[in-house]
Design brief:
By secondary structure, the protein is of the alpha/beta class. The chain folds into two domains: 118 residues, Rossmann fold, CATH 3.40.50.720; 181 residues, NAD(P)-binding Rossmann-like Domain (Rossmann fold). The chain is 36% helix and 15% strand. It is built from 13 helices and twelve strands. Strands 8-7-6-9-10-11-12 form a seven-stranded parallel beta sheet, with helices on both faces. A five-stranded parallel beta sheet has the order 2-1-3-4-5, with helices on both faces. α8 links the parallel β7 and β8. α1 packs parallel to α13. The chain is globular. 41% of the residues are buried. The structure holds (2R)-2,3-dihydroxypropanoic acid. (2R)-2,3-dihydroxypropanoic acid (DGY) binds next to loops.
Length: 322
């Protein structure tokens, strides 16, 4: 049974087919400006709503949660990341929080592969050479990269996205190593080698992929000391959150040549990224595109809709965080 029509405020324009599905079931208000709302605007949007659909760029700290009108029953984030929401405050207020786990794992894992390959094969330099009209023809010494085939892949954060990256990487004969807060069961490991500390993982990572959520424990986890543990000419990929990396440390290692290259989809302080990245030849950058496929976007909408249904009907929802 689906819940009665609800009043839902959506803080950013979502893809039209997703909006169509929402509108068919509920009375929807959408932020007409398609920009991040200010805290006051967020509260105003919530003032006439039973619930909100938000993004990872809408902050719900304890203060914002306490200020929500009492009729707001849920906040559903159109993201798998939830570091923008104070879950303890939501629990205390009785506010249901929903997110979009798993449905974007394929999309993000494909981005991880894209970044690995783009960084390893100097895709950015090749693009520039062509677009700037500097290509003078094939030469045996042109843009020599590295293969990821057969290399050791280190995955920091072995959740569902990490597991999916591991499966894709095995297609490249990579041997998979990982660190996670807790060791995963054998079926999730699928032969991957567990390392009890990030430091142990780094020492064996020819390619390191950051796939852990942003939290107190992971912020700036990749700093100067840890980067020094990576094998010479390693490649760093970040599909998680920009604040996992100490930008000064990564940039220095890319400049010195200790690291061969990096592939980055996320940045501290988005959309402003450290401008030094733009001047480095050995980085391959994407503008936070990890989950941006039509398949993932549709599934993200659907999982939020069914979670909202479940919350309103008092059922459990697989994507309910609190
Ligand atoms: C996510 O789902 O967390 C993406 O990074 C978008 O915020």
């Amino acid at each position: 049974m689906t819940s009665p029509r609800l009043r839902i405020a959506v803080t950013r324009a979502l893809p039209e087919p997703v909006m169509d599905r929402f509108r068919a079931l509920h009375d929807i208000w959408v932020n007409p400006d398609d920009r991040v709302l200010t805290p006051d605007e967020l509260q105003a949007a919530a003032s006439g709503a039973d619930g909100l659909i938000v993004t990872a760029f809408d902050r719900f700290d304890a203060k914002a949660i306490a200020a929500l009108a009492p009729h707001v029953r849920f906040v559903a984030t159109y993201s798998v990341g939830n570091e923008h929401i104070d879950l303890d405050a939501a629990r205390a207020r009785g506010l249901a929080i929903l997110s979009t786990p798993d449905v974007l794992s394929n999309a993000v894992a494909e981005t991880a592969m894209l970044l690995m390959l783009g960084a390893a094969r100097r895709a950015h330099e090749g693009d520039r050479m062509l677009y700037e009209g500097r290509w003078t023809g094939w030469t045996p010494t042109q843009l020599i990269g590295r293969e990821i085939t057969g290399k050791r892949l280190g995955i920091l954060g072995m959740g569902r996205i990490g597991e999916t990256i591991a499966r894709r990487a095995r297609g490249f004969d990579m041997t998979v190593h990982y660190h996670n807060r807790s060791r995963r069961p054998p079926e999730a490991e699928a032969g991957a080698t567990y390392h009890a500390t990030p430091d142990d993982l780094l020492a064996v990572s020819d390619v390191l992929v950051l796939a852990a959520p942003s939290s107190k424990a992971t912020r700036r986890i990749l700093d100067t000391t840890r980067i020094a543990r990576l094998p010479a000419s390693a490649i760093v990929v970040n599909i998680a959150r920009g604040d996992l990396i100490d930008d000064d440390a990564l940039i220095a290692a890319l400049q010195s040549g200790h690291l061969a290259s990096a592939g980055l989809d996320v940045f501290a302080g988005e959309p402003r990224l450290d401008p030094r990245y733009l001047a480095l030849p050995n980085v391959y950058l994407q503008p936070h595109q990890g989950s941006s496929t039509i398949e993932a976007r549709l599934a993200m909408g659907d999982i939020l809709l069914s979670g909202i249904d479940a919350v309103m009907a008092g059922r459990t929802a697989v994507n309910r965080l609190v």
